[in-house]
Specification:
alpha+beta; 6-stranded antiparallel sheet
Amino acid sequence: MKRFTLATLLVAFCFFSNGIAQTDAIRGKIEMNLPDTPTPTFEVNLDQSFFNLFINFTIKLPEYTEYAEMIEGVFVRSYNKESGDLTEMENHYQNILNTEQWQHIVKVKDQLHVSLLFAETPGVVNGIFVSFTDEQNTTFVNVCGEIDFQKLGILFGKIIESDPEFLKELKIGGKFGNK
């Protein structure tokens, strides 16, 4: 009888814990720690705990707090030319994007790809995935959460309003499509 009870508890635990793991999955988050891949030259892992800490420090700056509340994670992996052929990794990410029905928004040759995973709520995305390649590096960026583009635009406007020199200082050095 003890063996039956123990086996039943073990099966129930495995079934229950598997259900918890599935419900805790963050929509829009792409697993970036793939087996048998080269070590990234640059890696960023900012999860919900980082953004909760950020919210605590910016409690008197609601424009930043509002933005941080939308983000559940930011994950970046960058590889240099010495990392080897990254085609398999790029194909893996593209397969995930296609399987989960991400919308490919921007593609510039094979140098820049931007995809969004739209939520059921209009104007909200659950994920942003960007991959870009320059002469030296290939970089993958995944941002996930309940990202409201209208709120984001308003918050960006507030930041610009508070610092009019912001746009002058903002420089984009990308050379995508130029040779």
